[in-house]
Amino acid sequence: MAPRAQTGSGRLSRGLLLLWALLGTGLCHTSAEAEGFSQDARTSPPVAVFNWTAQLVEETYTNITQKCWEFFVDLMRNVTASELCEWKVISRPYSLLQACLEGWADHLRYSYPNALAEQYIFQSHHRYFHNCTLEHQVYFDPPEDVLLAMIIAPICLIPFLVTLVIWRSKDGKAQP
C-alpha cells in the first residue's frame, strides 16, 4: 500500500502546496517537447523535470495520488453493495480515479503506468470489486476448422450462384 501523507483538516500537504506555489510563480515552465522520454518497461522510474529532484516529483505524486484515492473512496460511499458490480454505476468513479492518477502523472512528467498507480487500481479492485463475477456467458471463437468452413462455404457458393443466374438468363424465354 502506498504511504499515506498525514494532513490536518483543511490543510494542503507540503508537496501540493509546493507544487501550487511553483506553478503560480512561473518557476516550473517546461519546453514543449520533453527530450529523451521513453518508457522501456510497464512501470518505469520517475523522470525528474522542472529542475526538481526525482524524490520531490515522487513525493508530490504520492501526495496527489493519495488525494485521488480519497476522492474515489468518497465517490464510492454513494454506491450500495448491490450496485458494486454494475459498470453503469461504478464507471464514473473508477474512470475518475484512473484519469486522476494518469493526469497528474502526465502533468508531473512522472511515468504512467507506474507502481503507485497500479497499487491504487489493485487496491480498488481488492476493496470494492473482489466479489464481482461474470454473470453473462462468455463467448469464445469457434474452433479453427469450423471457422474455416464458415469462411470458405460462401466464397465457393458465390461463383456457383453467379453461373446459375447467367445460365438461366441465357435461356431466351420470357419470364412470366
Can you walk through the features of this model?
55% of the residues lie in helices and 0% in strands. It contains five helices and no strands. The longest helix is centred in the C-terminal third of the chain and has 26 residues, at 144-169. With 176 residues, it is an all-alpha fold.
Uncertain segments are 1-41
Strand content: under 5%
What overall form do the CA principal axes indicate? elongated
State the total count of DSSP E strands.
0
Could you provide a short overview of the structure?
The protein has 176 residues and is mostly helical.
Helix-strand blueprint:
Layout: H1 14-25, H2 54-76, H3 87-107, H4 115-128, H5 144-169
Core attributes:
mainly alpha, 55% helix, elongated, disordered N terminus
